[in-house]
Specification:
305 residues; alpha+beta; Uridine Diphospho-n-acetylenolpyruvylglucosamine Reductase, domain 2; Uridine Diphospho-n-acetylenolpyruvylglucosamine Reductase, domain 3; Uridine Diphospho-n-acetylenolpyruvylglucosamine Reductase, domain 1; 10 helices
Amino acid sequence: MNAAKLDTLRALFGDRLQENAPLSSYTSARIGGPADALVFVYKADELAQAAQKLWELDMPFILLSGGSNVLVSDRGVRGVVIINRARLVKFDSQSEPPTLQAESGTTLNDIAQRAARLGLTGLEWAASVPGSLGGAVYGNAGAFEGDMAGNLISVDLLHRQLGQQTWSTEKMEFGYRTSLLKREHMPVVILSAKLALGHGNRQDIQAKMELFSTRRRASQPPGASMGSMFKNPPGDKAGRLIEAAGLKGTSIGNAQISSQHANFFINTTATKAADMRKLIELAQNTVFDKFGIKLELEVELIGEW
């Protein structure tokens, strides 16, 4: 990024700007080269204003919150990365059904735990899912037979050409781990979302969340990862296919296919993104050669490759 653009960003964002900052600190896999500039936002209004200014300046940007489900290249990102820390949450226990409105940088675990303390059910599945609400809406995150499509009432977003809008669940056109926004790479940022909940017993809700967390710990590996690497193909499991292809535990550099669950790729220590991508391609190619199935990434590749 040239000096004039950096001067413009300094004037716009002041101490909310960091320059030449490594993205490994902001991703769940702890992988990623530097961004030319990081901009931190702490409210949905700040997020909208930052996105609008950058669009007006024709400066490309990427939005990160929890940093899961992404693999950032070793060369990093040319342009701006917005780090979304907008986390205001409001519950309405008196409406029918009860609802919550949360800003997009809120973590799924936070809203699930807060709902449980209020005796509100429906988000137990989300307590063990890493990442932010915005990312979950964008990719229709889910676990344990629940997903964002099942909870979402509406999403507030900012569209580059059309301005601020509220979309219904139907307009999002959710599919398995996808949405219209993700499929079409639309020029939008998700500001907040409204979710439907239900009334329940606090002890029962907490017990269900603990059961899900125990099941996740038993089946999924600890350590730095992006979450599930591939989408499950129809009628099968990506992890089963990778294991059946003989790749469980395989390493390239410090990137490793987990020996506990083969759909998790682990950063064992100071892993290069290039090695992780080689491991991804090895899994895709080997599974295709053996079973004729092309594994589709659930993770998104970001940056200069």
